[in-house]
Amino acid sequence: MRRVTLFVNGTSKNGKVVAVYGTLSDLLTVASNKLGIRACNLYNGKGGLIDDITLIRCVALSDGKMSDDISGSHTDWLTLNIGGRLFTTTRSTLVSKEPDSMLAHMFREKDVWGNKQDERGAYLIDRSPEYFEPILNYLRHGQIIVNEGINLLGVLEEARFFGIEQMAEQLEVAIKNSHPPEDHSPLSRKEFVRFLLATPTKSELRCQGLNFSGADLSRLDLRYINFKMANLSRCNLTYANLCCSNLERADLSGANLDGANLQGVKMLCSNAEGASLKGCNFEDPSGLKANLEGANLKGVDMEGSQMTGINLRVATLKNAKLKNCKNDPSGLKANLEGKTAHRSHCLALEIK
């Protein structure tokens, strides 16, 4: 005797085992009595309609109504309205890849968050659609693919908003790698000469904050150039023309400025510790005074320099060498006010 287990269509529970005999109509009558329904049709486990009793193995019965479980299985598909643009995906896509994300919490269970829907049933989310698309694709296949013209920073902000942490970390690395590394290497003489040649004579060349460390800038015409806060440490500036240039807060430590023209130079609060300024000319016939107020001149060798009118107020001259320097009495009295000249060499300072 053949036996078969009958289930109500769409379920796999509460099955009834019955004997198979007679015709298909006889089996439907027995099934109706066993399951307490009005059995109309007979289906196999894959949903195929059975119209011949000789084909029966494992079947499901239907009373003609759509099963709640069957209709519910299609709700795994859902539509999102992101900033007015529709995206159709599955619940498992939003939940599986990043289970701790905001999207996973929103759609893991039905209506837990009370998500708002538009007239078509799409879930409303007020975010940017162009930045959301790469996020949805990442949840589908795990790869970050961003079309040309889409700002990675925008995608990163959306990933952070939705709590897609792994994607956010990858985006941060991609953004960092997309920027060229900062070049802090010092400018060479060749590069700087190119700048000089390209600059009109009446235009001011701005080199504020640039790095010239160790560069050979000797004998160049550097008049009126703005070197404010530039790094000129260990530079070779011998016989360079720095007339009226701005060296305020510049780093000149260890630099060689022997024989340089420093008429009217501005060196306020500059650091020239250990620099060599032998035979420099600070005196401007027009009366424009060089200003070294507050400069660090520790250990500076200024032997034989023309210092008439120079302003050294509150400058530090500890261990500085001022042998055979030239100054005037008024300048020596007024402009050295507050200076530190501990153990300075002022031998044969010429007073005119």
UniProtKB/TrEMBL annotation:
It comes from Sinocyclocheilus anshuiensis. CDD domains: BTB_POZ_KCTD9 (cd18368), KHA (cd17073). The keyword Glycoprotein does not apply. This is BTB/POZ domain-containing protein KCTD9. The keyword Repeat applies. Keywords: Phosphoprotein, Repeat, Ubl conjugation pathway. It comes from the Eukaryota. Substrate-specific adapter of a BCR (BTB-CUL3-RBX1) E3 ubiquitin-protein ligase complex, which mediates the ubiquitination of target proteins, leading to their degradation by the proteasome. One of its GO terms (biological process) is protein homooligomerization. PANTHER family: BTB_POZ DOMAIN-CONTAINING PROTEIN KCTD9 (PTHR14136). Signal peptide: none annotated. The gene is LOC107678460. Residues 78-148 form the BTB domain. Pathway: Protein modification; protein ubiquitination. InterPro entries: 5peptide_repeat, BTB/POZ_dom, KHA_dom, Pentapeptide-BTB/POZ_domain, SKP1/BTB/POZ_sf, T1-type_BTB. Pfam families: BTB_2, KHA, Pentapeptide.
